[in-house]
Amino acid sequence: MTLKHTISIITFLFALPLIAQEPDPSEAFWNRLQSHCGNAYEGNLALPEEDESFGGKKLVMHIKSCSDSEIKIPFFVGDDKSRTWIFTKNNGILTLKHDHRHEDGSEDNINFYGGTASNTGKANIQFFPADVATQKMIPGAATNVWWVTLDDKTFTYNLRRLGTDRVFKVVMDITKPISTPEDPWGWVD
């Protein structure tokens, strides 16, 4: 073994502890999202451009509640305060669920659907394929894949129903916090 090979091996061995100390991608994503806790942001509908439920309405997300294992983000569409995205973390794997409420705070019949990531994803993107509970609740959503991207400028919430033309994308500007909105429907601290 040459001196050059020996130095390369020693350099590699000393680098191992540094590699092991870096957070896994889902943890990096989680920490970045959690760093916005308490802030609210405005965004816009990117896809589909002509959507009667979301088009032309003020879109606001409020990263309202954060703990070590759960982040709740109410998402308002105009005056509709029925939606909350719920991210949970379990052993480095993230889950996204959707909490839908009526104006009186009662649960919608279609509630807590979503999916769990199949791996740790990347620090700037997490994928959530529809889970079994979602498939049973909404048979047409069996091929849903949600994904969220997060960088220094934007948070995007995306949905694609594989095998169909169904696509949805909201882009939130996270460089400019806005005034904190009222509580979503049914919110309990």
Order of helices and strands: HHEEEEEEEEHEEE
Beta content comes to: 35-45%
CATH class: Mainly Beta
Largest sheet: 11 strands, antiparallel
Spatial separation of the terminal alpha carbons: 65 Å
> What is the helix content?
10-25%
Radius of gyration from CA coordinates: 20 Å
- Outline, from the CA principal axes? globular
Number of helices: 3
Number of domains: 1
Oligomer: single chain
- CATH architectural arrangement: Beta Barrel
Low-confidence stretches: none
Structural class based on helices, strands and sheet pairing: alpha+beta
Mean pLDDT: 91
What is the β-strand count? 11
* CATH fold node name: Lipocalin
Description:
- With 189 residues, the protein is α+β, with helices and mostly antiparallel strands.
- The chain has a single domain (24-173), classed as Lipocalin (Beta Barrel).
- 19% of the residues lie in helices and 38% in strands.
- The chain is built from three helices and eleven strands, in the order ααββββββββαβββ.
- A hairpin with a 2-residue loop joins strand 4 (70-77) and strand 5 (80-90).
- The longest helix is centred in the first third of the chain and has 19 residues, at 3-21.
- It starts with a helix and ends in a 16-residue tail after the last strand.
- The relative contact order is 0.18.
- The model has no long low-confidence stretch (mean pLDDT 91).
- It comes from Maribacter hydrothermalis.
- This is Secreted protein.
